[in-house]
Amino acid sequence: ANAVSAGMRDNPAKPGEIGIQGRTAPTGATVQSPDPVVHASTVSEAHGSAKTGEEQPVLGANALAASLDRVRADDSDQALTSNQGVPVSDNQNSLKAGLRGPTAMEDFLLREKITHFDHERIPERVVHARGSAAHGYFECYKALTELTCAAPFAEDGKRTPVFARFSTVAGGAGSADTVRDVRGFAVKFYTDEGNWDLVGNNIPVFFIQDAMKFPDLVHALKPEPHFGMPQASSAHDTFWDFVSLMPESTHMLLWQMSDRAIPRSYRMMQGFGVHTFRLVNADGASVFCKFHWTPKAGTHSLIWDEAVKIGGADPDYHRRDLWEAIEAGAAPEWELSLQVFSEDEADGMPFDILDPTKIVPEELVPLIPVGRMVLNRNPDNFFAETEQVAFCTAHIVPGIDFTNDPLLQGRIHSYLDTQISRLGGANFHELPINSPLRAVHNNQRDGMHRQTLNRGRVAYEPNSLGGGCPFQAGAAGFKSFPQPVDGDKIRAKPEKFADHYSQARLFWQSQTLTEQLHIVNAFRFELTRVQTPSVRQRVVSLLVNVDPMLAQQVADGLGFDVPEAAPVLVDGQPEYSASPALSLTAYPGETGIATRRVALLVADGVDGAMVTQVYEHLLQQGAVPRLVGQKLGAITCSAGKPFQVEITLSAAPSALYDAVVIPDGEQATTLLAADPLVAEFVRDQYRHCKPLLAAGSATEVIDKAELPDVLPNGDEDFSLAVGEAGQLPELLQQFAEALAGQRELGREAL
Ligand code: HDE
Predict the structure, then answer these.
(1) Which residues form the Catalase core domain (predicted)?
(2) Lining residues, ligand 1, CB within 6 Å
(3) How far apart, in whole angstroms, are the C-alpha atoms of residue 284 and residue 247?
(4) Which end of the chain is more exposed for a tag (fewer CB within 10 A), N or C?
(5) Is 579:363 a contact under the CB 8 Å cutoff?
């Protein structure tokens, strides 16, 4: 291959990527990039160091795998070298004057190694420090040329390589994945016409309406500066002090206190572009647009108690989940939908479409599905890809444009700016993960760590000495939508921005009763952690304007009477009717029980035939069964060969599984029923509203844990599949149906 020189090989652990097969899309249409703008010089059009005339990376489908090849390194069969390529004979001992003597200053190998180590760290992101990412592609269903000339939407079935990073916002890079927080949902599209970054969140609104307030918001949210606590949590005084004085955050607070903020998996959450954007077609006509990602696996969340327990048992829970699903071939998928509306329609809406604290309800503007994103390849190297990737709202391509949303306008500045310090200079666009597939040609030069070998004497434009190259692309280049602007220069905002509560109410009223209960509990939890009584009261005074019942329930938990409502600044707030799409129950998903983790509790004397039957049944449907025992090693079965326990109850507690099966077996039941860890495991499964299956004697384990067999409202608990060993097929079917759907939240007494 081109620049894959001796010593730099494809990763044998990823055989799908070796050679040409790995760079060819497995199915569906693929589209080649247009010829790059070519000029007379001999500068390589290839991505990076390949010389003209050598084999060029294949652009188009999975093109990114090819462009990253030039930097992909594998050490198999290689001798150790220094950074200068000098073979190293001894990597254990520094060079000393005598066996017990001082280390020699000349030990360049020791010094090089330690010096590099000393500088291994870069600053973490100021927000969204903790994240996980994957490669994949976006596939457009149908050409959208009427709406936009953006490259990813140019042809039916066109595929564009993407790299997506999901993140929490508040915590440091080493913080737990399952904290209550907004999740970042950032997608870099490596389009034929440069990179387009859709830098969104899993919540469609934001806390503030103007970028001017962002540093204050983040200072209030981050650990308090005097003692550096709490980590990755908004449950402290400064955050609630700030938002209680910022009524525009009320709508977002309801989302943040909802189960959206504790997703079950990155694969099971929606993504939103948040701001209103513009689409522009080849004739220059433009419409407004909101971007929505909907997960094929459905929207699923954790229960708060479960999230807390996972935080201890496996702080990497979401990172591991994404990695393992992709390694297992269960590539997560999202559908991209657009809400498209005209300027006139926007003017008629009861809110300002430039206000990022508002959604455009689906009842007002329906969602149009336009394509899907599939994430099917894990990064080779966390630092080089997930950490060094630089998303930026300013990265747009012809066919997409900004609006005047004052939050978006501030973001356009912030990302490049912060990346200059985080990634050490102005050339981070040359990092392999950041560089576009379309070759870069401009007169920007030099700076720290410059890699491109720009040839020739000309680094200015206009020029005659370089034949006028690189020349302006003219009509083929990016043109800003010529939106007319007028008005006085002013620090203020439109009147409609002052309606802070009507959409918060819409969200509240669109939740199911259990979702509402979770919101109330989250407010109570966070405000209980707040120490200052007046801050607690001020938050509840905002909630009075959303719904007096909500305020009442929160105030009850905090032990005070409902305070007076916060002042409402607008007359006649718009009325919305509930929007079912705002409930997490609206998207149960289409992937059945695939990727769901199921514990089979086993001990000596378990019915081996039943274990095999359940295990295989789950595997066939793509679920992830695990034999969980009291200790590692072989267990004997009442029938069949012994099994090896895969993990222990203490190493992988209940919260890490989506469901539990307790197979039949007298002796095993006696052992399990006597173990307090088993009782805790089973109770947690129940309490976290997960499906349980117990067959034959194993029902005793359920009895021992004293689980109610009907729901608090007297209905049958469909997620509790308990019965005779002979009923296993029916029990399994009931269990799988329960596992594929939403959790049995009816177990939570209202
Ligand atoms: Fe960000 N945001 N943000 N943000 N944001 C960053 O850029 C900023 C906002 C979002 O996986 C930073 O490279 C300002 C909204 C994501 O690498 C920084 C404002 C939304 C990520 C920054 C906002 C986001 C970031 C920190 C208000 C949802 C992680 C490191 C004007 C639509 C991207 C970095 C990744 C990261 C600034 C508000 C999403 C400081 C000034 C609204 C997903 O530049």
Answers:
(1) 81-469
(2) 125-128, 131, 165, 167, 184, 186, 199-201, 206, 211, 214, 274, 356, 391, 407, 410-411, 414-415, 418-419
(3) 38
(4) C
(5) yes
In ligand 1, which atom is closest to the CA atom of 414?
Answer: 44
Task: State both tokens at 114.
Answer: 């330690």
Name the nearest CA neighbour of 378 among 321, 334, 327.
327
**Atom of ligand 1 minimally distant from the CA of 211:** 31
* Spatial contact of 666 and 695, defined as CB atoms under 8 Å apart: no
DSSP 208-249: -SSGGGHHHHHHHHSSBTTTTB-TT---SHHHHHHHHT-GGG
Q: Which of 167, 199, 266, 412 to mutate to test the pocket of ligand 1 (most atoms within 8 A of CB)?
A: 199
Specify the pTM. Answer: 0.92
For the question of an ipTM over 0.95, the answer is: yes
The preferred substitution site among 124, 411, 422, 428 for testing ligand 1, maximizing ligand atoms within 8 Å of CB, is 411
Instruction: Determine the distance from the C-alpha atom of residue 321 to the mean position of all C-alpha atoms in its chain, rounded to a whole number.
Output: 11
For the segment 115-127, the average pLDDT, to the nearest whole number, is: 98
Residues 301, 512: contact at Cβ < 8 Å?
no
| CB-CB contact of 654 with 684 (8 Å) | yes
Q: 65 pLDDT band (50/70/90 cuts)?
A: low
Q: Of all protein residues, whose CA lies closest to atom 7 belonging to ligand 1?
A: 415
How many whole angstroms separate alpha carbon 204 and alpha carbon 663? 43
- The closest-lying atom of ligand 1 relative to the alpha carbon of residue 210 is 31
Show which residues are catalytic: 128, 201
pLDDT by residue (tens digit) across 302-359? Answer: 999 999 999 999 999 999 999 999 999 999 999 999 999 999 999 999 999 999 999 9
Mutation to probe ligand 1, out of 414, 416, 417, 421 (largest number of atoms < 8 A from CB)? 414
DSSP secondary-structure letter at 692?
Answer: E
Alpha helices in 563-607 (DSSP H): none
For residues 370 and 142, the answer to whether their CB atoms sit within 8 Å is yes
Which phi and psi (to 5°) does residue 723 adopt? 180, -175
Task: Give the SS3 label for residue 320.
Answer: helix
Does an H or E element contain 110, and which? helix 108-118
